[in-house]
């Protein structure tokens, strides 16, 4: 099992990390990866069983599938399992593809959020087709375009990954950085609208701050913003940031389940309808009108209509 460190390395070594640090990060990645797979199975099962038709949760379901596949692709990152260069090339391509799919799914969620601020001319079927294209097809095109000029890192005791020679690892790091930057812009836009809407409704400052914190906790795993910490490994930044990145990245699925799926008002309402005999009693007893991303995005629309 490899750690998330090698994904963000520009060279083969990070000077600020010792062998003990790398060993601990491998252990963190193993534990976090197991938790992520369990959480993704729970999230995907939950979203499939509940009668939910939200585009946002549709994207989240695909994101769970991508996360599971990305975690499983780590099995092929060790060159000891793929001594054949051709098999190693396939393993490296799968890792690059699934982790790019993960971040393109975050971009699709950002596009979904952006569509709430203006009229959406596409039908539901075409919207889903656009999101699926963004999540699964665009990363495939990137991998295929970069597969010809790249050469994977192959050798005894090494991992199947992009070679550092001739800056081949930029084929992963540059698209990743651009996707994170786009998602950060959407995050800032939504947080500003949340604060603006709260002020228009004359809410107390504590309430506005609470809404912003709840929205941030939901958006950060959905948009993959914590991956920005991974560039502390690329540029050999502070060690504690590198540890924080490995912890958050390996536990991505668990963060998605706790802060995004289970806090969704649609998921909570559907669960209550499933387990309660009387739907009206369930809605009053269990659902406490949680503040979610969708509810916050409705606020600006109400302000505009005033």
Number of domains: 1
Number of beta strands: 2
CATH superfamily: Rhodopsin 7-helix transmembrane proteins
Radius of gyration: 21 Å
Structural class comes to: mainly alpha
Main β-sheet, spatial strand arrangement: 1-2
Say what the CATH topology is.
Rhopdopsin 7-helix transmembrane proteins
**Which regions contain 5 or more consecutive residues with pLDDT less than 50?**
282-289, 299-306
CATH class annotation: Mainly Alpha
CATH arch. level architecture = Up-down Bundle
DSSP summary: helix tally = 13
Share of residues in helices: over 70%
% residues in beta strands: under 5%
String of helices and strands: HHHHHEEHHHHHHHH
Mean of all residue-level pLDDT scores:
83
The best one-word shape is: globular
Largest sheet, if any?
Answer: 2 strands, antiparallel
